[in-house]
Amino acid sequence: MRTVAIVPAAGSGNRMNRGVSKQYLTLAGKPLLVHTLEVFEASAFVDAILVVAPSQDLEFIRSTILTPWNLKKVCGIIPGGMERQDSVRAGIEALSPETELVVIHDAVRPFITEGLIGSCVRAAAEEGAATVGVPVKDTVKEVGPEGRILRTCDRSLLWLTQTPQAFRRDLIESAHRAAVRDGYRGTDDTSLVERLGIAVRMIRGDYGNIKITTPEDLVIAEALLAASRQAKG
Ligand code: C5P
After folding, report:
1. Is the pLDDT of residue 111 over 80?
2. In the chain, is it the N or the C terminus that has fewer CB atoms within a 10 Å radius of its CB?
3. What angle (nearest 5°) sits at the alpha carbon of residue 208, between those of residues 166 and 24?
């Protein structure tokens, strides 16, 4: 099935407190966005990549990311929107007619692996929608606005969702259309599908598939990268 990866990279990175958007921060001398795109470039499960970027950065991405790093599978750089959901929708609207499966992955999760992409894409081909995630390790509390605990959640049922999230194309298109119609805002793409009453498969992912959000995540990322290099010898 023809599979396109949509990589939302249009965030401004306010929580990072650096002058530069986090997808361009360097990890071991390479921009985060390059680390992420290289895995999809090499993936046997992905035919083409659409990068969604800040509208003022389209040429910058072509000249400083795609050309120097020889990322040939990228077939389009699409201007993003106000929120992540708007950026993903812009990517979906730019899909070529023959696209059958869509795999969405945050630019700022550079530790994605071919194994996880494969599991997620295969599950979406079989069942319609799938995400990667991990069981929570800590006890989760619901806390009220005044800072007091309202509820302790049943940890045995709780997972943290990550990306990739993969979908049959028609399903993710209708989910985004329904979200626009209903004014629904979600923080991931499976939530848009869940609200249509469709079951989404959860695939056990990897605790190392972190999202780089705050400055301490970069320190963890350097350590993870060093450990994986050591393991490879
Ligand atoms: O902000 P957050 O960490 O949730 O961003 C996750 C991903 O979504 C990042 O790769 C970011 O660049 C992207 N994003 C986007 N458009 C936005 C906001 C975030 O493509 N308006």
Report:
1. yes
2. C
3. 75
Four-CA torsion 221, 76, 54, 130, nearest 10 degrees? -50
Q: At 199, phi and psi to the nearest 5?
A: -75, 135
Q: What is the pLDDT of residue 191?
A: 98
Q: Of 56, 77, 83, 106, which is best to mutate to test ligand 1, by the most ligand atoms within 8 angstroms of its C-beta?
A: 106
pLDDT by residue (tens digit) across 2-23? 999 999 999 986 666 667 888 8
Q: How far is the CA of 82 from the centre of ligand 1 (A)?
A: 9
- Closest residue by Cα to atom 7, ligand 1, is 106
Contact 18, 24 (CB under 8 A): no
User: Nearest to residue 8, comparing CAs of 164, 200, 196, 170?
Assistant: 164
**190 pLDDT more than 90:** yes
Reported as type and span, the H/E element at residue 166 is strand 159-168
